[in-house]
Amino acid sequence: AQSVTQPDIHITVSEGASLELRCNYSYGATPYLFWYVQSPGQGLQLLLKYFSGDTLVQGIKGFEAEFKRSQSSFNLRKPSVHWSDAAEYFCAVGAPGSARQLTFGSGTQLTVLP
Amino acid sequence: NAGVTQTPKFQVLKTGQSMTLQCAQDMNHNSMYWYRQDPGMGLRLIYYSASEGTTDKGEVPNGYNVSRLNKREFSLRLESAAPSQTSVYFCASNPGTAREQYFGPGTRLTVT
User: Fold this and answer.
1) Which residue in the set A43, A97, A100 is minimally distant from B104, CB to CB?
2) FRET label pair with A22: which of A11, A56, B7, B95, CA 20 to 30 Å apart?
3) Which residues in chain B are contacts of A97 at CB distance < 8 A?
């Protein structure tokens, strides 16, 4: 069974600083990988996804993530954080060919200081 | 194109009451899902429907039932609500196999 770990429960950065959110997964082969963002009181919005190919993927709102097979990681990055990026971020893994589900990490809450 | 819609947005129930959460999608997606979100636990799958006419249990199905009414609609029923079912419930859909899921806005349920 697949699993996802987001080691950081809460991260605080200053506006304009760079950001990296960590995600580690456990899966027997190459999974499908996703990052979602959830603003307070809202549903989840897809930031980016990885299925295959180029291991550096670009998403919306200036985010990118890099798939590293050797480290079983899919970390999310942004070079310069904006106050509007304050939200909760979820990493998720899916098994190719399976309609069952995505497995979500427990989330990382991002606070942005002015 | 509304995407995934959920009703109601908020609900307060007393222990033992029943209710149905409604979900509909207009993207012609095959698969639909119900999750619950609790603080510090991410999203946990309750039930899913891989295609019209099929439903399967997820990680936390106890106390819930589902109906895939047609391709568009997937409802979640609580027969006898318990305080442990206080949570935010999300419906999601996707076109098929383990691709990205599209989420509704959620239903915040409180059981007293």
Assistant:
1) A43
2) B95
3) 97-98
Per-residue model confidence as pLDDT tens digits over B35-81? 999 988 889 999 999 889 899 999 999 999 999 989 999 999 999 99
Give the residue from chain B lying closest to A89, CA to CA. Answer: B42
Which member of B4, B43, B97 has the closest CB to residue A104? B43
pLDDT (mean) for A35-57? 92
CB contact under 8 A, A99 and B45: no
Here the tokens at position B26 are: 């207009």
B94: which chain A residues are within 8 Å (Cβ-Cβ)?
99
Parallel, antiparallel or unpaired: strands B43-49 and A73-78? unpaired
Q: Name the residue among B101, B79, B80, B87 with its Cα closest to residue B25.
A: B101
Q: How far is CA B2 from the centre of its chain?
A: 17
DSSP secondary structure, chain A, as one string: --EEE---SEEEEETTS-EEE--EEE-SS--EEEEEEE-TT--EEEEEEE-SS-SEEE-GGG-EEEEEGGGTEEEEEESS--GGG-EEEEEEEE-TT--S-EEE---EEEEEE-
| Chain B residues touching residue A44 (CB < 8 angstroms) | 43, 90, 92, 103
